[in-house]
Design goal:
Layout (H helix, E strand, L loop, with lengths): L3 H11 L1 E3 L14 H9 L1 H16 L3 E9 L2 E8 L6 E9 L4 E6 L4 H14 L1 H17 L2 E2 L3 H7 L9 E4 L6 H9 L5 H9 L9 E8 L8 H12 L7 E8 L2 E3 L4 E2 L2 E3 L7 E3 L8
Parallel strand pairs: 8-9
Antiparallel strand pairs: 1-10, 2-3, 3-4, 4-5, 6-8, 7-8, 9-12, 9-13, 10-11
Helix pairs in contact: 4-8
InterPro entries: DUF1672
Pfam family, one: DUF1672
Length: 283
Amino acid sequence: MPNKADEKKQAEASAYIPVQDYTGQGYSFDNGEETGEFAKQHRNEIIEKVKQYFKQKYHLDITVHQIYGATDAAVVFAESKKDPKFHTSVIVGIDLENKKIGDVGAYEGSVEGAITTGLYVMAYEKEFQKLDDFCTAITKEYPVIGRTKEAVDNTVDSGYATPYYYLNTTHLEFLNSYKSFLNNPKINGQSLKKLIEDQKFISDNMIIEMTFYMRKKHENPDRTPVDKIKDELKKQKDFPPGEYSISVNSNDILMRTGTEKEYKDSDKEHNEVIIEPNGEVAK
């Protein structure tokens, strides 16, 4: 007779994949099989609708990376082609009974928040380049890596994102910047920076989620790199202002959701790193 415990372990193991091999394969939403098949057959029409939506509402050109079926809808993952750079997703209604594609929409504030993260990166372009270099150096010094670019494109919709970190905010936190962009899509980073720094600095208005994964395949997360990365971050200067949260995840990714199997993070003692507009770490 088959061993049920072994079967369960095998099923669980097959649901995970090492992060360095993950490009979004197996990612899915509930009740998405039929709508996903319909969306595949009408992919070009859906892409055109989504492109028109972004162009008319936000004056932006986008690239569609992936389309997933969901309940009565398709979820479309997209990335802006030019500044402000960001990843987001929108929902396209699908009427299977009548074989029709409906309107494009999004969760309230989700696209606006994603755009705002891209505007923030424009305002602090040099500072974010330093953060990128720092993250690359971390992966050389410690046994951690980031996600693949394909995984970011196909499974991330939170705003500006790289293999090592993503930004989280709402447009309401930087409303002047967001409105200025809508009124003038050609606004430059210097103007955006002035608008941002004219308002009171509140660290958690911009959360910078630094996310690393253990390099060794199938390895569980280790607290040690979290503490070391945090200590290294505190030594830096002229980084983007905001509240930094650091996590080191297991090497294994749950394919269906794109999330880690386990993680260790700096929130254990509520000791996130806060960097102020002057580039200094808050004491």
